[in-house]
Amino acid sequence: MKTQASSATLADRVGEDTSRIRAELETLVRIPSISHPGHDPSQLGRSAEATAKILRDAGCETKIVEIEGVPAVIGHVAAPAGAPTVLLYAHHDVQPTGGRDLWHSDPFDPIEKNGRLYGRGTSDDKCGIVMHAGALRAYDSRPPIGVTVFVEGEEEWGSPNLGKFLNEYGSELRADAVILADSGNWRTGQPGLTISLRGIVACDIEVRTLDHAVHSGEFGGPVPDALTVLAKTLATLHDDRGNVAVAGIARGKADPLDLEEAELRKQVGLRPGTKLIGEGGITDRMWMKPSVSILGIDAPRLTESTNQLVPYRTRMPLSKHSKTIFGATCRGARRCRSRRAGRGSHTSSRAREPRTTRCAAR
Ligand SMILES: [Zn+2]
Fold it and tell me: How far is the CA of 183 from the centre of ligand 1 (A)?
């Protein structure tokens, strides 16, 4: 039995396997496995089947298990006697794509451009699945440790049933360490190991100012519209320098490793006139300080708006990332932080909303 392989040998093996790894990734990307409600759930079943086949072909004993109709895949390679077991995590669901006009190419038809593969899920997180399979094949499916692979099917929807899943199947996921293949690259061509992640809390905020719409020409002035109230409320979430102004969220400092602003601007495609927000090192702001992001607003469209004061249902999802955790068991720790961050957000929005409005956060 092979128990050791030099890193050079492993790198060679992975290199030789690259075309297969890529082909398997493309197979997965072609399946529109969007976990958000309102999308075809049968696609999640297809992606679970495809994931199970890839892991089976890589030497795992696999099974598909469902909680609340959402399929996840569990794979096992037994540990040699006395060896520890590592849990490898990934997820096979993806985010909705938004409008097709936002894409340069079909999101579910992977395409290579300038040395990169584009398509929904090529990175997050179908890449994680084929990476795990490729790692197992590099060891001829007989790694020197036990391996359990857990590929979730609802991560992009916030894993609402993960607790139930762990109650039912947690014993099958027991491991000495957890490796999540679901985080960012430090730099193209330069491997990185993520050892901490910020948690997340999300909520929808609904603002209501009136029971019904009224004419803006007649009543505008003393009577507030919901959009202005929402904008003023959102403006309180950051201070004038762009730092998160919500109290009570943990903050820390990242390792000395830092990004140059020019590199970050290039990575994210920041427009020339747009300034970065917040203070401190860039990696401090990305990894160890909280961020607050507004992900969308439901409000009257320009083409449908008339001379009316918007009375209600100006809604927006708010996503806040707080400084989180250290170590391998990210998910449990992440949840603790999320709850703490959530209280901060709610208090802030409530405390600062104008008295005449109703502002509800869910
Ligand atoms: Zn992900």
Answer: 7
